[in-house]
Amino acid sequence: MKKLCLFLCIVALGTRCSKVLDIEDVNNYQPEQVWNDLQQANAFVANLYNKFGNWNVGADRNSEQLSGITFGEDAITVTGASTANWDYANVRLANLAIRDVQAGTLSQAEKESILAQAYFMRAYTYFSMVKEYGGVPIVTMPLDRYQDDLDLPRNSTKECFDFIIEDLDKALALLPAKIDVTSPDWGHIDGNFAQAFKAKVLLYKASPLFNPGNPWNNAYWAGAYTENKKAYESLKSQGYGLIEDYAKIALSEKNSEIVFPVINKFPGKTANWDFGARPGSLSRGNASACPTWEFVKEFPMKDGKRYNDPTGAYYKTDAAFLQSYWKSRDPRFEKSVLWNARTFPVAGTPKGYKQYTSVGIASANDNFGINPNVADKSTNNNTYTGFFILKNCNLSLTQPNVQQYDIDFVLMRFAEVMLNYAEAANETGHTADALVLLREIRKRAGIEPGAGSMYGITAVSRADVREAIMNERNIELCFEGHRFNDLRRWRLFSLLDQKTKNGVEAIAVNANGSEMPILQAQQQASTFSLSEDNFKYSVVQVPQTGVQKNIVPDKYYFYPIAQSIINKTTKLEQNKDWGGSFDPTLH
């Protein structure tokens, strides 16, 4: 057997496996050793779990939620295409486990556990490829580059979806139905997660991405509805649900909303969430992802309606809203976004500490803007926006310890299951059920019930409810890495294409509206005496230099297979919008 790099520097799937595993000569895969020893077998499978990733503060950078222009002119090309998700290395690892575990001396229960996880991870890996490329070659055996034919044609997209579901069904037949939070196996795949993920796969299959000719009335929606309803009802019957406080979904680990976590535990495994989210003066470097003004405007008001809805209790003109955007908002806004002059009780800061972003007042690592009346010039105007991510931040970490963030990564939670179910229900004649789910999510958020306890939802028709669900996902799941993929599967890149991004500059003012002398403003800010109302606000485009507008054509719905991969084969067809003949849709 040829060498296969396993990178078995593994950290815990659970606290019982928190130490780095030490396997002799890990670059040589020895099946007779791995599958005869439970510790090595579990480490092998744990390596597959790396596919789940971890907290990524920039996960939504490709969308309108965060600053950064990621799609300049010809950002994606055949020669410049990423190969990151062309992940046959993970497929090979899963195939090795599936092929070889049965020959080992593990107990039958242990073998079935390994098989179940391997089947799931193979399905998960194929799904990550199919949603980007469409159909890809289906490989069910670990191929050897010296002995096997590696020049394989692509399977159709339908065949790939069928294969993914087949693998998930195999996993479901072997997985424990539920792994309790008190179990040392918490953080391993269980039947609940597998069922919810299967339902999500079928939601993608039915989506406009794969059915551009019949986006909302194709036959696949029926299957998506059945599986999403099943996942929702099963989880609910077992006690899963929305926890009371939106701010604690991740920070309060092992709660009833978490369907599947990736376990973090300092010092063995940490993530860079606070490190990348916090203002630079309270981190170990500048924030790497900041909410945009466009996204700030998307949060509803307290009554659940948009700020510019004339029927809303908190209606404001665009000009008035800019000067008071933090007032009377959906409570999820203040639990997700940090803004200028807001109290920010990070451990190690003085009592009453407020976070400022105004040039001349804020730290050079925190400021944003172009105020010509201040000698200081911000160096952050290409990345900052005047806003920072607050959601999921662990404010108990002091600035020196900001990189010790070890909150478990929430890969799937019950609110997503609810929204997936609501979407499938709405497209299959169950709009009333979808509205019930939306109201529950908004009720938890703290939105005012309003007339008829509709929580600001006015949608009635199928099309209007569809839009309401899309908007709710944008807010409820913000900064969790869903938005770009949602826009892709709905074929709504029009919301990104030819669009710019903006931030909001804050400048301190006197009571009469005139600009406050900078020395006076600095003195008041030093005692945290300046509040939000002591500033005037203006919109500033970001970035200030370089590429300033996203260009996201329709052909980006499916990416090209990198030419470097195509060049190694004679049978692998390129996608049709990228010079090839392969149709990645379901037609």
List keywords for this structure.
mainly alpha; disordered N terminus; 587 residues
Summarize this entry quickly.
The chain has 587 residues and is mostly helical. The protein has 17 helices and eight strands.
Write the layout of secondary structure elements.
Blueprint (H helix, E strand, L loop, with lengths): L30 H4 L3 H11 L39 H13 L7 H26 L23 H18 L16 H16 L13 H18 L20 E5 L10 H5 L15 H6 L19 H5 L8 H4 L2 E3 L2 E2 L10 E2 L31 E3 L19 E5 H13 L4 H15 L16 H15 L6 H7 L11 E8 L9 H9 L8 E8 L20 H4 L21
Antiparallel strand pairs: 1-6, 2-5, 3-4, 7-8
Count up the helices.
17
State the end-to-end CA separation.
42 Å
Shape: globular
Q: What's the helical proportion of residues?
A: 25-40%
Largest sheet: 2 strands, antiparallel
Order of helices and strands: HHHHHHHEHHHHEEEEEHHHHEHEH
Mean pLDDT: 94
Strand content is 5-15%
Question: Biggest sheet: strands side by side, in what order?
Answer: 1-6
Ranges where pLDDT stays below 50 over 5 or more residues in a row are 1-26
* Alpha-carbon Rg, integer: 25 Å
Number of strands: 8
Structural class: mainly alpha
